[in-house]
Recover the amino acids of this structure.
């Protein structure tokens, strides 16, 4: 049962790039517009309100940047930007839900798993929508939310753990790869409807990818495999999130009524 401390104005962090504008007041000042633009440009996020629902939208696009800075020409999602946003959303009394929109080629495995673990552990209602692609470490991110959607034209690529750069050719390196791969398999199977054995089978499939092993799933195939919950668009994902928020609010109200004070 979701329960949060009564804290006020605790969502918006004090400085960019994580600060999202408060669009619920309906103001149209130049300051609000500048803050909104800065939030989108710097952190790929925005907070909007419809009716009684205040929703935070987080985008995971391009390559997920971890411990090493990627070249300037790369589109990246920086995990040091995303993690504070998730903490602020979870601790906020104002934000009702999170929608995470993905179009990613993958990236740093540990950074991606760190974000996915945070999202999966949130009590705030969460929904993901895969557009274009949710490849590699984008797969755990897509399944980390309470409910996942994918558009029919999107694809998801599943392949084994790989590493660029210098690799020591010793048994310990292969053991490390296997351990990291099992972390991914366990997380995905725990947060979706696919079995570990089936996910490993798709990871190691041959004949599907040129110069690589793995599997490419269309949106429909990802749903049929149990990897993603539903086919859908933005409106489907938002409607699902609104329904989850309403159900969550109803449960909290019932809890408050039934629980004696003191």
């Amino acid at each position: 049962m979701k329960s949060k401390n009564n804290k006020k104005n605790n969502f918006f962090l004090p400085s960019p790039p994580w600060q999202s504008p408060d669009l619920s007041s309906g103001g149209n000042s130049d300051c609000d517009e500048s803050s909104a633009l800065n939030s989108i440009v710097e952190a790929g996020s925005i907070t909007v309100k419809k009716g009684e629902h205040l929703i935070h939208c987080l985008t995971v696009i391009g390559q997920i940047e971890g411990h090493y800075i990627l070249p300037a020409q790369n589109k990246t999602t920086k995990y040091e930007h995303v993690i504070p946003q998730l903490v602020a959303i979870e601790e906020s009394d104002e934000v009702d839900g999170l929608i995470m929109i993905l179009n990613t080629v993958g990236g740093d495995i540990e950074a991606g798993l760190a974000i996915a673990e945070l999202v999966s552990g949130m009590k705030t209602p969460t929904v993901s929508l895969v557009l274009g692609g949710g490849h590699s470490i984008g797969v755990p991110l897509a399944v980390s939310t309470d409910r996942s959607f994918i558009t029919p034209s999107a694809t998801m690529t599943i392949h084994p753990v790989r590493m660029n750069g210098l690799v020591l050719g010793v048994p310990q390196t292969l053991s490390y790869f296997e351990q990291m791969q099992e972390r991914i398999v366990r997380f995905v199977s725990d947060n979706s409807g696919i079995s570990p054995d089936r996910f490993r089978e798709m990871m190691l499939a041959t004949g599907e990818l040129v110069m690589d092993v793995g599997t490419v799933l269309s949106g429909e195939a990802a749903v049929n495999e149990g990897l993603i919950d539903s086919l859908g668009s933005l409106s489907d994902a938002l409607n699902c999130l609104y329904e989850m928020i309403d159900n969550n609010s109803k449960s909290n109200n019932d809890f408050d009524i039934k629980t004696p004070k003191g």
